[in-house]
Amino acid sequence: MPVISYDPPERFVAGAVGRPGDRAFYLQARSGRRVTSVGLEKFQVTLLAERLEELLDEVLRRSGGDAAVPAVAPSELADDGPLDQPVEEEFKVGTMALAWDPDDEQVVIEAQEVTESDEEPEVGEDDPAIAVLRVRISAAQARAFAERALKVVAAGRPPCPLCGLPLDGEGHVCPRQNGYLG
Prior knowledge:
The chain is α/β, with parallel strands linked by helices.
């Protein structure tokens, strides 16, 4: 399988392009002039950020506070800049995996290309046609990534105070007021 590896990247962020309600979400890694952008769904961005926080909290808990894992994102790692342009999607993300490398005290994030095939490869076999983005970052960088990712998701359409579904400019049929979606 073709693996696009960043160990470590100069920059690794989640971002969105477009107007709220019509945004495309991306993971983007950069080292020097090399930039890789992969597309994913909004819920995948949220899940990745939440699982990163859970992973780091668990590493911190299991180490008794001895691991090099900050409890919050260091302010000097905050990255509120836009995605690097042009944003050219390498592939659409299907599955993701997270791991903690205790030897290097780094988080490993893998985003695998979505596949159309229902067939699973045999045990021990990889599909050479499936692309993977693999990024290794420090725990501090992972905290900063998660913080930014949650901000990107929250910057979309505000939720309806009654049902929680997104509000948009054309109006909103609230199932709590009308009893159904129309």
